[in-house]
Amino acid sequence: MQQPLAYRMRPQNLDEIVGQQHLVGPGKIIRRMVTAKLLSSMILYGPPGTGKTSIASAIAGSTKYAFRMLNAATDTKKDLQVVAEEAKMSGTVILLLDEIHRLDKTKQDFLLPHLENGRIILIGATTENPYIAINPAIRSRTQIFEVKPLQPADIAQAITRALGDAERGLGQFKIQLDPDAKQQLTEMTNGDLRSALNGLELAAKSTPADAEQVIHLTLPIIEECLQRKAITQDKDGDAHYDVISAFQKSIRGSDADAALHYMARLVAAGDLVSLTRRLLVIAYEDIGLANPQACQRTVMAVQAANQLGFPEARIPLADAVIDLCLSPKSNSGIAAIDAALADVQAGHAGVIPNDLRDAHYQGAKQLHRGEGYQYPHDFPGDWVKQQYLPDTLKQAHYYQPKTNGRYETALKQQYDRLERAKGR
């Protein structure tokens, strides 16, 4: 039986992994484990198709240990016993246990002693938050690593590799993949490499070759094989960003109906990554201090959406969009940090006042570091007048409060009181 392309292209060593460089890049934790031959059991959690199985496969390939795959929900205790017996014979087995959050107590009790003695190196994979969904007895014996959604550039790299690999990939075919079709594969699969590779393979094997035996894959073919329409047919991809821009501007302008329309375009395209990322930006850029609770609710909605995936993800995200549209608005936070950055980038940083500099090292006293600093908690109201900005910027004002919401109105009142007390 022919294995799917995503299965065949699984990494055989750490260098073949795309993305997840925070775990497998030079000097990072999993690469350090493999290099030092000091593997420990771990749990990898993150969205589907982001590389959990690939990391486990690459670890096994890099260490030459036996590699077995089981599913905590469907495989039995007897299947675990077979792996344990193999571990006794060979010394060590790496066991990828998918859906580890569904491991029942009987299987867990069987596994624990094998994890303790190191015969089985468990790599648990889950889409659920392990701090909530996984039994503490397993958690305490594993390290927990978050696997993040792949970026379009990561998926593009994997597609290029698959097209050129004649042994495991599609290199035996003459495939012409149009740029906009490749963009559809990389951007509209929500960081899910498995979906991108399997969509590519379906397109390649279901499209007749031309007279020169070239298989020409166009955007409509890829759309059909992914069952996800592009947001636009614009070859340069500009309209994709136009939709995102219109989405943010509609929320900033408090037009809930327009914002829901542009959200619907992103949902129809299956672009969960762009939608959730943009919502988080909007919450803190455009609503910000006018309504911090709405920002918190948006974070929770994005977390729920990433756990649910489409189609259900549209429900908490629609609530967040309406909430942000109808909320008071303030951009004072982004305006403040950008004003401060402008001074720093213009070379106006200035010298940090001596009394604010670090005094927790030998020799600091001789340099008069920290000398004259007044500890605010020693004074009434936990405040004392003293200069914090460098001399060259001591009159600078970056934060310009707004009064569109009750929270920032209260912040403005406190800010004004403090400025008067400073004599500024």
Describe it for me?
The structure is a single chain. The chain has 19 helices and 7 strands. It is of the alpha/beta class. It has a 5-stranded parallel beta sheet with strand order 2-3-4-1-5, sandwiched between helices. It folds into 4 domains: 20-146, P-loop containing nucleotide triphosphate hydrolases (Rossmann fold, 3-Layer(aba) Sandwich); 152-226, Helicase, Ruva Protein, domain 3; 238-325, Zinc Finger, Delta Prime, domain 3 (Up-down Bundle); 348-422, post-AAA+ oligomerization domain-like (Orthogonal Bundle).
CATH architecture descriptor of the largest domain: 3-Layer(aba) Sandwich
Number of domains: 4
| Beta-strand residue percentage | 5-15%
Give helix % range.
40-55%
Mind summarizing the main beta sheet?
Answer: 5 strands, parallel
Low-confidence stretches: 232-237
Mind sketching the topology for me?
Layout: H1 5-8, H2 21-24, H3 29-36, E1 42-45, H4 52-63, E2 66-71, H5 77-90, E3 93-98, H6 105-117, E4 120-126, H7 130-133, H8 136-139, E5 143-146, H9 152-164, E6 174-177, H10 179-187, H11 193-206, E7 214-217, H12 219-226, H13 238-252, H14 256-268, H15 272-287, H16 292-308, H17 314-325, H18 332-345, H19 406-422
Parallel strand pairs: 1-4, 1-5, 2-3, 3-4, 6-7
Helix pairs in contact: 5-6, 9-10, 9-11, 10-12, 11-12, 13-14, 13-15, 14-17, 15-16, 15-17, 16-17
